[in-house]
Amino acid sequence: LMFLGTHEPRLDEKGRLILPAKFRDELASGLVITKGQERCLYVFPATEFHTITEQLRQTPLTAKSSRDYMRVMFAGAHDEIPDKQGRVTIPSGLRDYAGLAKDCVVIGANTRVEIWDAKSWKTYLADREKNFAEVSEEVFPGLF
Questions:
Q1: Three-state SS at 71
Q2: Does 117 score more than 60 pLDDT?
Q3: What's the distance, CA 64 to chain centroid?
Q4: What is the pTM of this model?
Q5: Which of 12, 26, 67, 140 is least buried, going by the fewest C-beta atoms within 10 A?
Q6: Considering all CA atoms of the chain, what is the largest pairwise distance in Å, rounded to the nearest integer?
Q7: d(CA 98, CA 40)
Q8: What is the pLDDT of residues 13-64, one digit of tens each?
Q9: Buried b (16+ CB within 10 A) or exposed e, 97-111
Q10: Are 95 and 18 spatial neighbours (Cβ–Cβ below 8 Å)?
Q11: Strand pairing partners for 110?
Q12: What number of CA atoms fall less than 13 Å from residue 91's CA on the CB side?
């Protein structure tokens, strides 16, 4: 399971987004959309979301940061099955959170898909590409 690439779909007037064709097979049996970090949305295949849920269950309830993270993640989560055209409806609360209006960017981010407002993505990417080019061995020891 690996999602790759950058795509630029648009939201329609009903708040639906057409998933990139290359992602549809992995998401066809069900997906979960939830709040991501940096004001984007995370889209997980339902099976991957289940795996993450099981991992989060292992964290102690006494850890405040874990409780806080789980509340935001699960309270904002929306599960659905894409229609035959590969469309998913993004609930208004999630659209508001990510600032989605019409122009979107959908990126593959390894085991998840992310949905960004197009302007926010361009700003984020411009800010991070210099750091990406300068990554040193200390960030990922032994990997590169």
A1: helix
A2: yes
A3: 24
A4: 0.91
A5: 140
A6: 48
A7: 5
A8: 999 999 999 999 999 999 999 999 999 999 999 999 999 999 999 999 899 9
A9: bbebeeebbbbbeee
A10: no
A11: 3
A12: 13
